[in-house]
Amino acid sequence: MLVHCGAKHLSRILRMYSLLTFLLCACFWHGEAYARARVEGSQLLDDAGRLLNLRGANVLPVAPAGGLESADLLAIRALGGNLARLAFFYEMIAQPGGDTQAKLGGEGLKLLDAACRWAEDAGVWFILDCHVPPGGCNPAPWCAGGARALFTQERNQELFVEMWAELARRYRHHKHLLAYELMNEPVLPKGYSMEQYRQLCLRVIDAIRAQDPEGLIVVGGDNWSSARSLTDELLLPRPGVIYTFHFYEPSAVPYGQGLWLDGVFSTVYGRPFTYPGVLPVAMRWISNSPEDWGATGDTDWHLLEQSFTPPDDANYGMVLLRSTNNAGTAWFDEVELVCDGEPVRFAKTTTFDEGAEDWWVERETAGEFKWDSQVGHRAPGSLRISGTDSYNAFYSRLHFPARPGARYTLRCWVKTAGATGHTYPCVAWFHVKEEHVDGEWIAQQISPAVKFRRRHNVPVFCGEFGCTPATPGGYGLRWIEDVATVLSRENLPWTYWVWREQFPPGSMAVWCKEPEGPYVLNGSLWEVLSG
What we know:
Low-confidence stretches: 1-34
Largest sheet: 11 strands, antiparallel
Number of strands: 26
Distance between the termini: 16 Å
Shape: globular
Structural class: alpha/beta
Number of helices: 10
């Protein structure tokens, strides 16, 4: 449920809270009790030795469509939170110059300055989160194009070290600065070892500590900082390190992966969707059928058709419209899949006259891809892909159940212009593992982080968890409640993803942007989180 928090009502809340802030600042917040936090064993304490029970939200002052205001930090505190993870992109706060020095400046740095000041004024602890470091640290398209060049180029590592040294000099005086988070969700490239990653982290930590000897540091593990990434191999020989993990499991719930919405009926990987309930928890790709065939050169619309059987261990399939090593352009239209003569429902949209809402792109960094409203087989409308430097595809979000031994036939109309490589439809086959997912299952998935904390007597922090509102039937809210319950039960600090919606509509926000309308508070969500 979205609760409209009108401007007058919100303004009244914030005016009252601002007065309270002023009074508390005068007698308490700027006193000794709110000096810098410290680590004692696995706990985070204020300087008076009191346990910090930290929970809050991720805010993006220096990222695309950030839109943060001072009222946001006041509202986090007014709604019961006390922690903000402030995300910034290196390229938005830096003006690189010289051979080894990162010169920080511009509007992005001013916004980060303001966010730190607003958090301080609101009495909210904050973490400086380098969400995108120089060169990027994971394969997501928004992370410097997914190149992960931080790990492969020494120049980027030098900029990284210089950036953090400068930020430590700049923000070390803030009493509510909780920690410096080196990078967000690293995914180490092939050939780059965990020991190399550790040495890079130590190099940056030492640069920060040269400027801020008491500064706390947040470090996450490989593979998107999952709870399972907190392994003994990650442990760093430095005091004052907080280890972090993110939680979005199983992806069918928070991301809606494999989810099919059809009116009031919904399925995930072909099974009725419920939470708690039986859901896919792991997926292993087996093979594609057929592979490396189809159209090339200049062709008018023509039908491509192939028949095949699934691999023996496949239990789900997904239709791909693929174009590999294509320096030209290809169009796809009117896709059909049958199994032993019976139609298979694998997408809502199989002809693209009015769009393709349930078709996604496999690799957003490899080529250009869009719905073409002008070109189609029988009527205008098709999926267009061009300039793929290796492989890429449109794929249907729905995974259909596979029938071992059955005969499948896949058909698709294709047109090409100057196409190289191979352009064709195919089915990707998977083995999907399913389990009963509930609050105890969530606790088991988070347990590696809990065991890591206990084993090494170090603090652990959940930097992100969140759920798309597209998850049907209130199941997403129930999942969020279960995750928050586990984190609370285990005394794990957390920040929810995300505070203000960045890419509306449909992100995981506390403050949601209505189409052509204002931001509104997702009251049900925050009630669960604050509870």
